[in-house]
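Below is one protein, fold included:
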Amino acid sequence: MLELNRITAGYDRRDPVVRGVSLRVAAGEAVGLLGPSGCGKSTLAKVAALLHRPDAGTMTLDGTLIRGWRHRAPREQRTAVGVVFQQPRLSADPRLSLRELIAQPLRSTGRRRDVPERVAELAPLVGLSAELLERRPHAVSDGQLQRACLARALVLRPRLLICDEMTAMLDASTTAALVAVVERYRAESGAALLAVGHDRVLLERWCDRTVRWDERDTEKTPAAAAG
């Protein structure tokens, strides 16, 4: 499903945060990427989500070599991947209601007619009432907003879901609820999962296997090794 081969990426070519990292996720597989804060795992997740172009290395999705990121990627590749970030308030437009937030990917891909059905289907699945759907981000809790962000990630029925520290800011009950939503979706769709985090217990319970991120030298050059 996903193959990252010797990826080097960052925000300064002279000092990349990810250097020569390789990672594979098979179709239908759940892989956890475990590492400390600041090691570069979120940057790698953005590369995998087609949101950040790497400086070096290759990425293959569904057997096709990726040649463009962000708006340069073909629509069928962009919509194959859904992503949920750690901080929902940084990834949600504060002007939109939760209903509009969930529907955003459908509108941007010309599927407006699917909005009522998909929002009605996903809202109860993630635990959002009709009243909450009409609120804007400032009027809901972090957990409620993250529920909407998960629904947004699922609205296009992705074949790969990337959860980048999705539950780091949530309490235990909300974490369990959102993990259950992801697993229900995967069971019904056969989607693969890349779950990024620093909670070893959560990742090892959630995923089929966990990959550990090792810092091998004093310059904090990371490399992924199967754990």
In short: The chain has a mean pLDDT of 91. The chain has nine helices and ten strands. The longest helix spans residues 172-189. The first strand starts at residue 2 and ends at 9.
